[in-house]
User: Fold this.
Amino acid sequence: MSIEKVILNALKTDCTGCSTCADFKADNLQHAIARLNGVTKVKVDEITGKTTIEYDTQKIILSKITERFEKLGYQVEIVSREEIR
Amino acid sequence: MREQFKGVVLVILLGLFALAGALIPGTQIAYAHEISIALTLIAVALGYRIYRHGIRSLLHKNITAQLFATIAIFISVIAGLVIPSASATGTAEAVGYLTASAIVAFIILAGMTLEDYIIHRTRGALETLIKMSPKTARVRRDGKEVQVPIDEVKKGEIVLVKPGDNIPVDGTVLSGHSTVNQATITGESIPIEKTVGDRTFAGTLNENGALEIIVEKVAEDTTLAHLIQLVEEAQEKKAPIQNIADRFTTYFLPIMTIVSSSVFVASYFTLGFEVALARTVTVLLVACPCALSIAVPVAVAATIGNASMNAIIIKGGTHIEKLKDVTLVAFDKTGTLTIGEPRVVEVKTFGNYSEADTIKYAAIAEKFSEHPLSKAIIAKATEMNLKIPDPTDFKTIPGQGVDAHFGNKHILIGRKMTETIISVEANQLMSKVESEGKTVIPVALDKNVIGIIVVADTVRANSLEAIQRLKRLGVKTAMLTGDNVRTAKSIADQVGVDEYHAELLPEQKVAYIGELKKGNVVAMVGDGVNDAPALANSDVGFAMGAAGSDVAIETADVALLGDDLTKVEYAISLSRKAFTRMKGNIIYAFIWNIVALSLAAFGILNPVLAVVLAEAGCISVVINSALLLLSKPKPLAKIKG
Assistant:
């Protein structure tokens, strides 16, 4: 098993000025990504849109993950990527 | 779940500290005043979620309601510490600044927690589907049965499914016989018989028999997984009406910054520092765009969630808005309004021969034929529990019929085959039936016509009801078909569509949709594969029976996973209801904000009332939206089909 950790900026201008709405969107995103086969950890920051993901590179490739973001209406930008195990 | 529990605990703790802080000054305890201040400060501090959110947003160059609340609470705390005897406003003389800030923090945090809870409930529909996703499968490997995690199952392997278990994969039945409840996928709760060669879906329930299934799709590739992803994506797709709310909220908070500063300056010079401070705090607390910004997204999620529970996939907020405007629904005929396969609808007999005799001899002659009409006759014989022996010999003459022997009996099937022996009376009867768009199959036994089998494509059990429901909604209906006028008229009369158009080639259907769109908002219902171009040209394309066909689901704006056409009306009425809610939410939130703001600016509200008002506005919008989840389609009358 080889785990990689990636930090993404996920941008969407859906909820403005309200934490409840931002939480709602972040929560939905977090659930959707967490369900991907091979993703072991996801944390979405509802304010900055910064998303930290850990995944098993033998089970899923990064482009599959970013594709999911795009399908959910997010533009993504990779901030950092490192192998942690 | 743990997050939510933590949230509730925080709210309760905050409340208890605030309460203790407020009650202690009335007791005889030593240092009551100091203890009270300490407890109240702890209470305020427990609202850290609010401040953290507000400050972090600011650092991220975003002004939020939480930032305003943070500033308001901070000002109150400072005021409470600096001017201990200060009272908030006229109406709240008894409440000191410090206590007020603890109460405000309590209400905001409680509001946030409650909203989170309700909003997460809108995920419920999706969670139901997710829960149906199998985690493991029993696979045959090296002659042994092993239980393995679902992502280790490979295409082409054989899985075994016991009675009462969920089917773990999309595949084909290799052996066994059972009934399967496919409600998860098709919304149809009546179990379907499955035997060798039938397709199965992951997440459906195997009822009474054991099945061996060859794996075709597993985990994320299954129909169920695709549906879940589609719903997730659809719930994220904005409804256009949200742009109105967004435009407003973008300017709202910057404007509020100016308003609150103006209120402070104006009150400072007319009513003095203390009143100015109280009013500014109140304005900041009431200035919450939450109700507006959340009005639409939660309603969209709830509507799409509700639809998915009814085996309807609406592919985003835009389609909800289109659906609500639909004035005409055009249906494809074959396979949509009708079942799409010929069935025996009537048997006319002559002489002493019964219906069973006619079907039996026809079935013997047709036993080994693959022709759709033969299949219809065999199906009828099976339905009537008739035993069908093999014919002694048989000869199929393409375009004419069958010439067969059974023992010493000679059977002739088909119009051309019986031309010379049929009576004038029977001939007239056949012409009449044919004029209704049906097919006639005369059956002769030893050169004697014993009966006529009438075969036709039959309308689906729910088609008539579906059309009637649309009419009741004030929506016009039309039928488009490539079939001849005679057959088209017959079906159109049976289902009661307002208009029908026959003999249309696929490209003519597309053009016809264009015609209908002049003056109507048109939804087109078809199978999503053959009529994909017509669906694409309509305002809202419905694909029916879409479960298992990725193409159909992909093409459609709305996918009906099962065959129930009454869902068309449900999708439209649900969307109308949803849109009314969204619009209502926006108007309500807008008025609520203006009223609360005016009251705050003129000193009629105190900070506690202000925050109660702001949270109540937001929560009522959230609840109003979330309630869309509870809408249900009208039950169907029991129709055999």
Observations:
- Chain A touches chain B through 26 residues (CB under 8 Å).
- The CA atoms of residues 9 and 50 of chain A lie 5 Å apart.
- Chain A has a mean pLDDT of 88.
- The first strand of chain A starts at residue 3 and ends at 11.
